[in-house]
Design goal:
This protein is α/β, with parallel strands linked by helices. The chain has a single domain, classed as NAD(P)-binding Rossmann-like Domain (Rossmann fold, 3-Layer(aba) Sandwich). The chain is about 40% helix and about 20% strand. It has a 5-stranded mixed β-sheet, with helices on both faces. Strands 1-2 form a two-stranded parallel ribbon. α1 packs across α2.
Length: about 170
């Protein structure tokens, strides 16, 4: 899922950095992204030069500190609230204080995730539909404390990525 989300950003001309905790998974994910772009070249959907440009916008590492100056961080691990909360605690400490923290969740409570941070007004759900680089729908889940500015920023970002973004309240099934 993270690779597809990364492609959404790169396709919109936005540099993106992927973090994983496992070197093999990270290499595999980057390989899948490159193969997806090569498939597009082979099908005549983009040129080799375009592929090189967009793939060049995607970087990766194993270190959370590498996203310390990002404006938005989207977590995209599997649906496990404890794991997501652990990641958000770490991100809250590492990234700049005005960065938006988003969870790619399809049903977990965004308020529970936001509660483990010192910035609940900057926490939002971003439910990308799979495969994220192909499906146009983006569900933007507003937490109880998500600010209007955070929501507007994420909605504008969705538009830049050519997504059909819809706002959902934080309720079961969104």
């Amino acid at each position: 899922m993270g690779g597809g989300i990364a492609m959404c950003f790169a396709n919109a001309g936005i540099p993106v950095h992927i973090i994983d905790q496992d070197e093999d998974n990270l290499k595999r994910g980057m390989s899948v992204i490159e193969k997806n772009y090569q498939f597009m070249v082979d099908r005549g959907k983009m040129t080799a030069e375009q592929k090189d440009f967009v793939f060049g916008l995607v970087t990766s590492s194993l270190d959370y500190n590498d996203v310390h100056d990002c404006d938005i961080v989207i977590e995209a691990v599997y649906e496990n609230l404890d794991l997501k909360e652990k990641i958000f605690r770490t991100l809250d400490e590492v990234v700049k204080k005005d960065a938006i923290l988003a969870s790619n969740t399809s049903g977990l409570n965004v308020d529970s995730i936001a509660a483990v941070t010192n910035r609940p007004e900057l926490v939002v759900g971003t439910h990308f539909f799979s495969p994220a680089n192909i499906m146009r729908l983006l569900e933007v889940v507003r937490g109880e404390e998500s600010s209007d500015e955070t929501m507007a920023t994420v909605m504008a970002l969705g538009k830049k990525m050519n997504k059909a973004s819809v706002v959902s309240l934080n309720a079961p099934g969104f």
